[in-house]
Amino acid sequence: MKICIIGSGYVGLVSGTCFSELGNNVICVDNNKQKIENLKKGIIPIYEPGLEELIIRNVKQNRLNFSTDINNSIINSDIIFICVGTPTSKNSYKANLKYVYKVVSDIKKNLNKYKIIVTKSTVPVTTGDQIEKILESKNKIKFDVVSNPEFLREGEAIRDFMYPDRVVIGTNSKKANNIMKNLYLPLIKKTNRYFHTTRRAAELIKYASNAFLATKISFINEIANLCENTNIDVKEISTGIGLDNRIGDRFLRAGPGYGGSCFPKDTRALVTTSKQFKTNLSIVKSVINSNKSRYKILLNKINKIMKNKLKGKNITFLGVTFKPGTDDMREAASLKLIPYLINKGSNVSYYEPTGIKSNFNNNKVKYINNIKDACKKADLIIIHTEWNEFKQLNLKKISNKKNYKIYDLRNLYSPEKMKKNKVSYFSIGR
Fold first, then answer.
1. In terms of Cα–Cα distance, which of 275, 145, 281, 279 is closest to 203?
2. Measured between alpha carbons, how far is 254 from 221 in angstroms, rounded to an integer?
3. In terms of pTM, does the model score above 0.90?
4. Using CA atoms, how far apart are residues 335 and 330, in angstroms rounded to an integer?
5. Any idea which residues carry the catalytic annotation?
6. How far are the Cα atoms of 62, 257, 263, 361 from residue 341, in angstroms, in the given order?
7. What is the pLDDT of residues 59-101, one digit of tens each?
8. Containing H/E element for 36?
9. DSSP letter at 395?
10. At 163, is the secondary structure helix, strand, or coil?
């Protein structure tokens, strides 16, 4: 099939590349000329394991191309995926759909035959209805608007695409459903993971899924707070309740809170949608507030660990991204913790496997490109992101300071073993 992917960011680039790997002819379009030129040269704008190899292979085999020419790309395609950003609006929690509607306007001008227009961007309920209205206006060419939400985890995106938990297709068109099912057939032919529903339901499934996962994270973080006050290991609680098949153990890991491009944005947008339809989502609101204040609890613990003596202390962060396997800094806890520590007079440095980050617009934050040098003068080491290379460190000798401390926000190590080795070790929910 001839596929046009509009928006060559995280979702668009991964989806387009994987569709080409399945044998389709894919054109990835973006209005960022530099990004497209770099992609043509094999320079990838995001960190995603395995993506570079897939792009290079499919470009060589002429199944994957990149362009800034949106008009011709639309004209020469059968299926158009809208994969542009839907960020939170500046003055509200509402999803900003201006990029989506700009793309729809371009599609409207270039509809030359029957096409399927697919929203892969996360959009509020009824967005597909609005797109349909825009395209129908003064346009006699038939088309179908389909919702096909993405469920790609950063760092695991290629595997998630190729071996999906489910493929959700929202449309009332039998023709469009048959075409979309045929498109995904290589991924679903051995499983029963193709779910056909209405367009509005598909739009809401994405938000509901992310809100529920965010709820699990916030829930276990609050239980972790209780565990710390009752001398209980939160890992045992997570295991105990996770063994219940109705609950499961995924997303029951206590930590610094959820971040990234999806959970914060989507929970806020869902609450905004609920207000539009006069529905009170009190649980989701509580989740947002709980996660929003999570960093304050961590800062209180840091102050307690350091006995309120932060001025002049050397503090090292191991990892600053919101999760491993990605270079994504959006809504990472480090963006709250580091500025606070700087304001308190601490000397903050960090080691991050994906390199230096421009998010810390402060010359007092120092990037160090290896773990050994980053930690050798540290009074406090904060394990912020659970990269694999942080899981087998010799914490007994990691710093040259005599009374250095370790605050493990990801519970990578055993408190009992650390105590036995006489390491001043602190973790979450223990």
1. 145
2. 5
3. yes
4. 9
5. 262
6. 51, 18, 26, 14
7. 999 999 999 999 999 999 999 999 999 999 887 789 999 999 9
8. helix 33-40
9. T
10. coil
